[in-house]
Design a protein that fits this description.
The chain is of the alpha/beta class and 625 residues long. The chain has 4 domains: 12-58, no CATH class; 75-235, Substrate Binding Domain Of Dnak, Chain:A, Domain 2 (Up-down Bundle), CATH 1.20.1270; 247-396, Rossmann fold (3-Layer(aba) Sandwich), CATH 3.40.50; 407-620, Rossmann fold (3-Layer(aba) Sandwich). The structure holds FE(4)-NI(1)-S(5) CLUSTER with Oxygen (BF8) and iron/sulfur cluster. Iron/sulfur cluster is lined by residues 49-52, 54-57, 69-71, 73, 78, 199. Belongs to the Ni-containing carbon monoxide dehydrogenase family.
Length: 625
Amino acid sequence: MAKNVQDKSIDPATRAMLLEADRAGIETAWDRFEKQQPQCGFGMLGVCCRNCNMGPCRIDPFGEGPDRGVCGATADIIVARNLLRMIAAGAAAHSDHARDAVMTFKEMAEGKARGYQIKDGAKLAALAAEYGISTEDRSPEEVALDLANLLLSEFGKQTGPIQFTRRAPAKRQKVWEAAGIEPRGIDREIVECMHRTHMGVDNDPVHLLLHGLRTSIADGWGGSMIATEVQDVLFGTPTPTTSESNLGVLKADEVNIIVHGHEPILSEMIVAAAEDPEMIALAEKMGAKGISVSGICCTGNEVLMRHGVPTAGNFLQQELAVITGAVEAMVVDVQCVMPALGNLAGCYHTKFISTSPKAEFPGALRMEFREDEALEIAKDIVRAAVENYPNRDRARVNIPKEKTGCMVGFSAEAILGALGGTPKPLIDAIVSGAVRGVGAVVGCNNPKVQHDFGHINLVRELIKNDVLVVTTGCNAIACAKAGLLQPEAAKEAGPGLQAVCEALAVPPVLHMGSCVDISRILVLAAAIADHLGVDISDLPAAGAAPEWMSEKAVSIGAYVIASGVYTVLGTVPPVLGSPEVTDVLTKGTEGVVGASFAVEPDPFKAAKLMIEKIAEKREGLGLGA
Ligand code: BF8
Ligand code: SF4
């Protein structure tokens, strides 16, 4: 049970809900984490293999037991293969999300997905130009159909390159080409990961890891970037807007619907359905003052960025939202949705509604979502939530008071727009030293570390040292809750960054979106590098994932270093059982892609590593450390 809530999270709303869980005798991820202790030592080191039925095999890390599996695979081979499979799974998750977004886009273009439209025609035209699609005398839908088909072909094509990889600086493309890691089709690279890691195929750790980088590039500059771009065309490219964050956004007197998961294809429609006068009238009939939608995880980030829909919290708060007793429906699609929610929802009046044909959960009410009747189905879902309002047990409602304002919506276009259409003002600030560099801080929560502690302390240290922070995913939500996404947070920044933020009236931490939107950070980095005529690896920039847990984060980390950005991980990846793999990831990749990983659980030390790297890159550019 939730003893020592202080140790579990730095977030007061989370602490309050953990105490409430304790009182109610309800188990959360933190309790299940404790029950898992001690976690499997072989698993943590990455030295167990189940890739064939001669196994499972494991390597004795102390050198006393077996040093190879039945087939002869060493710790180095096993660790590299396991890591490759993590990258494959992460790249698959982002890219399959992208595929569904493109399928919806295609159906929209064909007039089959009623309810979806082209919201950003300028972006459609820009993408058409990028793909060489003629726009002359053609309707936007005709152009969109051609674009959809070409985007879909990126998944299955057998030879490269993926078009969006051409957005990388020319020098970066050459690096990939020289290393033989320029990706071909997205699906092809992921399938090849599974092939290579099958028993008896690729058994060279370096060779395996290089393919991991190639697959991850197909994610970052492929699948994830496609998801971001298509979603922008369909739902609009985010522009700065304000909202609120944390569990205090839930309303005591309104129907609360939480959208959780990753695909705005669903959450956009739920947001629209909740604004329908018929639904609002029904809510009033049920005794509620209205309908309030809020988000958890990245689909929350999507609707936060585009509509200012409040975020109720990050990954580890999904169960806590239900424990408030005030949620009529938790509507989910794919990724980062804990299967524990079914049982938990059963202890409250909350309807746990699953919607994706791909993702079923025990204890979920299934309301499958289809693009052809999107708004109708979304209304059915909202109606189910509204009709559940009278079942709310007021005696069990406990909504924490914490909610914090935030400014969000910093797409690459919005950032460049705020700078007058060119990265030059930002570059000038970097050259002058007012802004030392840029830190990209992203990723999950993980009960292995104190919730939000790594995120917030790392970001605070960076801005204090005049490093502008760009953020996505659950880090962005942590920053929102801590007040770091407000222009007033500039007061916490060093004098140079503070002055820049005050001049532009922006926060020192820029929310760039969901995890697929890390592609926005790549686009921004490429724009800055191109402006300077250098490679991304020359820029005074560093990345971090202080509390990462998901396989998607492994793919992200891999493509960030493959793009040339040094990255610090706050939780230890399962690779330490292989000295060779550890060495390649922390040093060897430097010689291949100009960047490597570091592992540093202490956020203050992690910030120092990033600041040192930024200083090194500044010197490299002749800017003075
Ligand atoms: O894609 S940061 S816990 S919600 S995996 Fe999941 Fe991690 Fe959050 Fe978004 Ni990203
Ligand atoms: Fe064991 Fe080799 Fe089979 Fe893995 S592939 S389970 S190491 S025999």
